[in-house]
Amino acid sequence: MSWPQKKAELVEKRDSGSISKSADYELELQLVQVAFRHGARTPLRSIPAVQEAQWVPDLLKVPDHTRIEHLVMDLQGGPRPPAPIEDNYRSSTLSGGSHPGQLTTLGMQQLYDLGQRLRKSYVVDVPFLMSAFSSAEVYVRSTNIVRTIESARCLVAGLFQQKQEDEVPIFTTDIENEVLYPNYHTCNLLKLLIGQRWAESSQLPDLAADLKSIQSALGIPEGQRVDFILIRDDMVAREAHGLHCPEPLSSWRATVEKRAVQMICHIYGSNNRGHLQLSVGPFLHILLTNIEDKIQGVASSCSRKLFLYCVHDTTLMPCLMALGIFDNRWPPYAADLTLELYQHRSTKEAFIKVSYLGQDQLIPGCSDVYCPLEEFKEALSAFTLTVDHYHSLCSQDDL
Question: Example GO biological process term (predicted)?
Answer without folding.
Answer: lysobisphosphatidic acid metabolic process
